[in-house]
Amino acid sequence: MRRFVIGVVIIVLMSIAMVAGAQTAEEWVDKGCGTTDLELKVEYCTRAIELDPEYARAYNNRGWAYYLMGDNTRALEDANTALKLEPNYEYALDTRGNIYRSLGKLDNAKADLERSIEINPDYYWAYYSRGLLYIELGEMENARADFEYACENGVNMACDLLEELGK
Questions:
Q1: Cα(38)–Cα(41) distance, rounded to whole angstroms?
Q2: What pLDDT is recorded for position 166?
Q3: Which of 45, 48, 64, 154 is the one with CA 20 to 30 A from 25?
């Protein structure tokens, strides 16, 4: 009988600990942002979506992870879902712009990246992304201008590309 009671107490305590350890959708996404393991990032964002199916940031971040994993189909689905939930979400526009660029849909990519910059001119990663697009379009001066602006505002990858382009 004593073992039974101890067992029940342990189960109750474990249940309380699990509930107390429950995290919000935002916390799961933040946890995903803190890892470089893309599969884990997808898992964390999926948990966030399960907790809050209307959380655009979770779809966008999972979409970005899918994009980095080379799964453009799922990446595009998630970016589109994020934009349905939040049509002026500059980060999702940047994500979708990069996906379109990798799919060769350069006009769509340009429209999304320019919209992202229009919504938030201080989102410097969109300038970096548009600079990459300009390289593909052969518009090197525009690419340099975007990389310079992004570099001046803390996007170190833009600085690296400027060096490669011979600034």
A1: 5
A2: 83
A3: 154
What's the Cα-to-Cα distance from 16 to each of 5, 21, 48, rounded to whole Å?
16, 8, 21
H-assigned helices in 21-166: 25-33, 38-51, 56-68, 72-85, 90-102, 106-119, 124-137, 140-152, 156-165
Spatial CA neighbour of 149 closest among 102, 141, 96:
141
Pick the closest to residue 127 from 99, 88, 157 (CA basis). 157
The count of other CB atoms within 10 Å of the CB of residue 167 is: 11
* Rounded distance between C-alpha atoms, residue 87 and residue 125, angstroms: 19
Write the pLDDT tens digit of every residue in 123-148. Answer: 999 999 999 999 999 999 999 999 99
